[in-house]
Specification:
Blueprint (H helix, E strand, L loop, with lengths): L7 E2 H10 L4 H6 L17 E4 L5 H9 L3 E7 L4 E6 L1 H17 L5 E2 L2
Antiparallel strand pairs: 1-5, 2-4, 3-4
Helix pairs in contact: 1-4
Length: 111
């Protein structure tokens, strides 16, 4: 497995997964093989958040490292649709197996 020198938290990986339609908690806790594999293509790529959203700072940190980007404003400008970039998807795929097999919630991967 190729390791990126960028440190990512479980929360960042969780948000990337949620944006792509992957429930990281389910994948981590499940004993089913199908829950431990990622699809070839994700069925969605979006995360809706506005000012004051609990995950806004994490979204902004992912944007800063190029893994997410802001899209259009919705709900009369109150919310923003965020999307995972190609680099973010690559990093999520690269990190997925490691996180569901080795990391406990709220810890960091540091290389």
């Amino acid at each position: 497995m190729m390791i990126n020198p960028q440190t990512m938290t479980f929360k960042q990986v969780e948000i990337l997964g949620h944006s792509l339609g992957v429930n990281l908690f389910r994948a981590k806790e499940s004993n089913k093989k199908k829950d431990k594999k990622l699809p070839k293509e994700f069925y969605r790529n979006r995360f809706c958040a506005g000012d004051g959203h609990d995950d806004l700072s994490t979204l902004q940190s992912l944007e800063k490292i190029g893994y997410m980007a802001q899209g259009q404003k919705i709900n009369e400008g109150r919310d923003t649709l965020w999307f995972v970039t190609e680099e973010g998807e690559r990093r999520f795929r690269e990190s997925f197996e490691y996180f569901i097999n080795n990391i406990t919630i709220n810890t960091k991967i540091t290389n």
